[in-house]
Structures are given as structure tokens and as C-alpha cells.
Amino acid sequence: MNTLIELYDERAIENILAPDMFHPRRIIYLCPREVLRDHTRQQKLAAFYRKRGWEPELIFVGTSLFEADRILRQLFTIEEKYPDCAIDVTGGSDAALFAAGMFAARKDVPAFTYSRKKNRFYDISGADFADDLYCDLTYSIEDFFLMAGGTLLPGRVDNHILSQYLPYFDPFFSCFLRFRREWPTIISYIQRISPAEYGQIPPLDITGSYTVKGERGSRNSANEDALQEMERIGFIQDLTIIPDQQVSFRFRDVHTRAWLRDVGSVLELYTYKACVDAAIFHDVISSAVVRWDDVLGHGSVLNEIDVMAARGVIPLFLSCKACDIKTEALNELAILRDRFGGKGAKAVIVTTESCNAAARHRAAQLGIAVIDLEELKTGQLVHRLKVIMKAE
Fold first, then answer.
1. pLDDT category, 294, cuts 50, 70, 90?
2. Whole-number Å distance between alpha carbons of 378 and 140
3. Which residue, 80, 152, 218, 374, is most buried by CB atoms nearer than 10 A?
4. When comparing pLDDT for 141 and 200, which is higher?
5. Residues ≥6 apart with Cβ < 8 Å to 91
6. Cβ–Cβ < 8 Å for 29, 74
7. If you average pLDDT over every residue of the chain, what do you get?
């Protein structure tokens, strides 16, 4: 195949899966006029293919994807210039698909499609090369953002070091479960006694008062049992408690310091490890920050996904909440999944609270799986992830 015609789709993966599978010399995108004018979007597509190790010629043809007659005429024109073409009828509008079917029939052009359910390509007409062909592609998390015109930025977590800490994350989460109700107060206390000046290396050796100011004028005293448990699991060292007077200890390192000063880190790290333990993903990232476009400054749109994982051509978006599930959180997760993952992408919200019926109903409407406190307490997170990804 020298020339592949793609019917441009809002779901980014529909635009790149067939080209990336068959590597034509030339890809012609029949696209809306706004994409034709969006040179940055076109450059991002070219950058995606370069990152994948090849550089096809990209041609963008503007059209109205709701006028079948016009689309059909444009397809005839393309075929006259590139008689060696084939057409992918996986994505695109209804009108575009209707026109593509007529085009393939009249001009005897090979046509094929892709089944997400079976992860295979299928011959529609004259495309023997695609018949019952298993899709063995794998995409990194960065790939999913790039193909959709986004950029993966560094997040709050240094993912390169996480593998060194995997044995600590289960004990850390067990510590959280033991002190779950007091956890925000415990973390707030640690924050109070371990301040850092902006731009300076944060100190690891900490000495602070036994009781500090809490929220809204309250008093917050050291939770001795929690601090002792944190020492037992190796997150802090050299703990000394003088009741009603003073607390001193040393953070293991800058990473554990950051995790013990952030209420939500424990769930994110536990979820990250569950993705790794599931052994079904080829890429896992904690704190994936995506910039939607190349606009810098105040006009830039940034979002953070707490944990992301990729299995073949299917991304998994995980939102971790150390609180009740709110509708806003579900809506945001659904938008990110649809924008950067497409129709086959999965989304999960993990909460350390019991999920109520209303939140479950809204999540179901949006196609989001819910994993709540009871499943976390009974160690079902890895199993649920495998079920959601249809790997078990």
C-alpha cells in the first residue's frame, strides 16, 4: 500500500492506528477545515510518526464531513491522482462513511476497518492484507497525548525512582488504612513542623513542637502511634517524642518527605503499584501532567491524571480521591479519557471512602469504573484493574 485515505475523526487513535499498522508511504486525511488550518495539529501528527520511527508524507484535504456527495467527489479526485490508494473506514462521520462505501464499490478501491472489541483489522472489500489481522501495536502514555495534540509534562512525582520504592507502598497504604480518619490531621501536623523556603533544598532533619496550630484556630498534636508506624515502615528515622513538648525525626529522603506532606500521595502510590503488580501494562506513570496544546502562559490548558497505564493500544486513566466522589471529578475524568484516549480508553476513579449510589450511577453513565474503600481494604485493586482491562 502506497497511499492510505483516512477519514479524520475526533478520536485521535482512529486517525493513526491503521497508518501505524501498515506504514503507507503517504497518508491523506480527509478532514474538517479547522484541522486543515491548524498547522500545529498537523505538525503534532508528523511528530508522532517520527517518534514511532517513520516519516510518511501527510496530505490534508479539507471538506465538510456532512456532505456525502462532496466527499465522494473528493475521493474520486484523490483516486485519480493516487490510483494505488486504499481507504480505512474505521473513523469519520456517518456521511463520510457512506461516501467511502460508495467510493470503494465504484472504484474497486480496497477498504478495511478495525474492531476495538477484537483488536483486529478486517477486510471490507478487496483488502486481503487486512483480513483478520491482529493489531500488535503498543503505545506509551506519551504517545497517547502526542497523537491527540497534547504534550506530556513532568508531574509531581519522579517516575524514574518509583521502582526503588515499590516494597514500601503496601506498608504505607496499610498505615493509612489504620489511621484513615485522622490522616488529614496527621499530614497537616507533619506539614507544620517541616516547612521549607521556596527555592531551597528542603531539610530532612525535623524538630517541632508536640502541639501546633491546626485548622481554623484549633490545636493539632502529634499522633504518636502514627509517627511510630511511619518509622517502622522506614519512611522516617531516629524518631524521638517528648510528650507534650517536642517531636524530632529524620525523613528517609526527599521523596518520602514529599509523600508524607501530601494527603493524597499514599493512594496514588498504592494505585501505581497495583498497576505494576497487575503485570498487564507496558507503561505506568504517576502524576501525568498534560498540556492540551502548544499555547504557553495563561492561555495554556493543563490537567493532571493521578495515575495512567497503557496496555497495547488501550490507555487507562485513574483518578485517586481521598474523599467522597464529586460529579465534577467524574466529568473531568471522562473529558480527559475521551480527549486523549478515544472510544476504547478506560477510566477508573479510586476512592478511600464508600461510594454512594448517586455517584455510582453518574459514574456508570459516563462509563467510569468505581473502586471504593471496601475493595481497597480487601485487597481487590489489582483484580479489579485486570477485570476492567478485560485481562481476567
1. low
2. 31
3. 152
4. 141
5. 6, 7, 8, 9, 11, 14, 15
6. no
7. 94
Report CA 143 to chain centroid distance, whole Å. Answer: 11
CA 376 remoteness from chain centre: 21
Half-sphere exposure of 82 toward its Cβ, with a 13 Å CA cutoff?
A: 19
Beta strand segments in the chain, E: 3-7, 26-31, 57-62, 85-88, 111-115, 120-125, 133-134, 151-153, 205-209, 211-213, 219-221, 236-242, 246-251, 283-291, 302-311, 314-321, 346-351, 369-371
Q: Alpha carbon of 177 to those of 16, 307, 351: distances in Å?
A: 43, 20, 12
Beta strands in 111-213 (DSSP E): 111-115, 120-125, 133-134, 151-153, 205-209, 211-213
- Using DSSP's 3-state secondary structure scheme, residue 338 falls into helix
Structure confidence at residue 170 (pLDDT): 97
Would you say 117 and 92 are in contact if contact means Cβ atoms under 8 Å apart? no
Which residues lie across from 275 on neighbouring strands?
none
The span from the CA of 250 to the CA of 145, in Å, is: 39
Distance CA 82, CA 315 (A): 35
| DSSP H or E stretch at residue 105 | helix 94-107
SS3 state of residue 298: helix
Does residue 193 register a pLDDT over 90?
Answer: yes
Q: Check pLDDT > 80 for residue 320.
A: yes
Q: Percent of the chain at pLDDT above 90?
A: 86
CA triple 231-233-236, angle to 5 deg = 35
Residue 7 backbone dihedrals phi, psi, to 5 degrees:
-85, 110
CA distance 131 to 320: 41
pLDDT of res. 216: 79
DSSP 11-71: SHHHHHHHHHHH--SEEEEEE-HHHHH-HHHHHHHHHHHHHTT---EEEEEE--TT-HHHH
CA distance linking residue 388 with residue 392, whole number of Å: 8
